[in-house]
Write a structure and sequence with these properties.
The chain is mainly alpha-helical. The chain is built from 8 helices and 5 strands.
Length: 243
Amino acid sequence: MVTSDAPETTVQLDTVAEATTRFLDTARRLSESDVTGPSLLPGWTRGHVLAHLARNADSLVNLLTWARTGIETPQYASTHIRGADIEAGAARPLAEQLADNEVAATRWLTLAMEVAPEAWEAIVRTRQGRPIPATEVIWMRLQEVEIHHVDLAAGYQPADWPTDFVTRLLPRAAADLTKAAAADPAAAAFAIHATDSGCTATIGATAPSHTISGPATSLLAWLLGRSTGTDLIGELPALPAWK
């Protein structure tokens, strides 16, 4: 555990390490038959989720390598290869899935701990082409681990997400959905209100027609498509498709 006076990147990396430990602990409790069972993601088994998390760690090694060396290193060689790697890895036995995730996560974390302070400010690009400072790579990995931990459908729930994670992601998720809603200007805007944290946001480009309220974690789970929103108050609209 890092101390309170550690550099911010070190604190963030410690948070990712803790989230990864929780994820791996859940994965180790799976059975062989669990691996081929359905995850929360349509069309994906738990094996797909496990394979994706391992390859995601490798893809973020690429971005850290780019930041350290200044040599452009795409997150993934191509969308096709990304998908093919996940499909190829999905049906592997549990022991192989666990070993792959343990090694990939350690490889990423070890490299991240070696990044020089100035390299964290280097600009790299996500697989969607969005330019980001390398510090955002840490946040990208944390989101992947926490959200896909829920997708394993193996006991870890949105309610288990750390408060700091929910507090940071909820307004960002609302902002991203607002961008997605721009593709449909006729879609009615609505507001969200977290009854526990006080966070408010509007999704859509116009004045909101109504408000959806509930605990921050429940709102986030619904916005991310990890909940039907039955524990929320207000008429739930169809959400914009994530881009």
